[in-house]
Amino acid sequence: MNQIKVIERSGMRVLTTPQLAESFGTDSGKINYNFSYNKKRYVEGVHYFVLTGDELRDFKTECEIHISLKRVNTLYLWTEKGAFLHAKSLNTDQAWNAYSQLVDDYFKKVEQLKEAQQPQQDHSGLSPLLQTLIHIETRQNAVEAKFNAYEAQLAEKSTAIDEVKDAVATISDNMTAVPDHTKVVSTVNEYARWTRLGHNEVYNKLYDALKSAHGIDVRQRVENERARIQEDYNNKTGKWYSESTLKQKVNGITVMVRLGCLDKFNTILVGLLAKEKAKSNLRLVQ
Question: Which pLDDT does position 108 carry in this prediction?
Fold first, then answer.
């Protein structure tokens, strides 16, 4: 990781969006998208600071920032906790490794510097009793500091547990005896966002699972029906449907509705989505 130019805000080190993106091996657009999509999870002053107006102009004057930020009207600065949420959204090995390195080599440095700058008091001239009392107090303060840090970790883990509960709630919220096809499509889109798979990949994965679990080959059914429609149309007109027209006329969802197996497809889909959410959020509590 390249040496990061130090930026501080409210007594803590922060990163600009380009700095965070470069560290995590992605681009600013992806960072901004993840923030917009998960904005309810971010707390201003905890996970990020936002600068506008005179505050932003002063900041641009005082700090050397990435050229892409010179003309922005709003600037986000990400704290260590904010960087953690972005690593969690990206959920790649590179992002997690970079986050760990940022904690060790960037965010914690300011605390280490403050500790190094604190003068060491000489207690050698005090009575043994006073020296012992001071030693006990020092150790007690250290224990309290560790306890406070532990409480903060528990708070983070509690949030993660709540999110796991949300993942479980996904099952109850999306499971119906006869699911509406628009609801199923919406859940497919959500699963695609969580897994970052293309929609064709998602459908193919689900079709494979449906075939394995219930012996229903949706892809083959779709191909057969499209071939039949294409042949009928050619016999009548001497022409052929375009590929896009065929897809509009026959798709996997409509075929499953006619076959009466959309509920089975939905069960598999919801289960995989809940598993994906739990897998992502459980990283916090391990």
Answer: 72
Residues of the chain scoring pLDDT < 70:
1-3, 109-178, 279-286
For the beta sheet containing 12-16, the strands, ordered from the edge strand earlier in sequence to the opposite edge, are 7-9, 12-16, 74-78, 48-52
Q: Are 102 and 12 in contact (CB under 8 A)?
A: no
Query: Which own/partner contact pairs does 203-210 have at CB distance under 8 Å and 24+ positions apart?
Result: 203/252, 205/272, 206/265, 206/268, 206/269, 206/272, 207/252, 209/268, 209/272, 210/261, 210/264, 210/265, 210/268
For residues 164 and 100, give the distance between their C-alpha atoms in angstroms, rounded to a whole number: 23
- β-pairing, 48-52 vs 12-16, is unpaired
* DSSP state letter for 26: S
pLDDT of amino acid 286: 45
Burial class (CB in 10 A: 0-12, 13-18, 19+), 34: middle
pLDDT value of residue 146: 55
The predicted structure's pLDDT at residue 131: 60
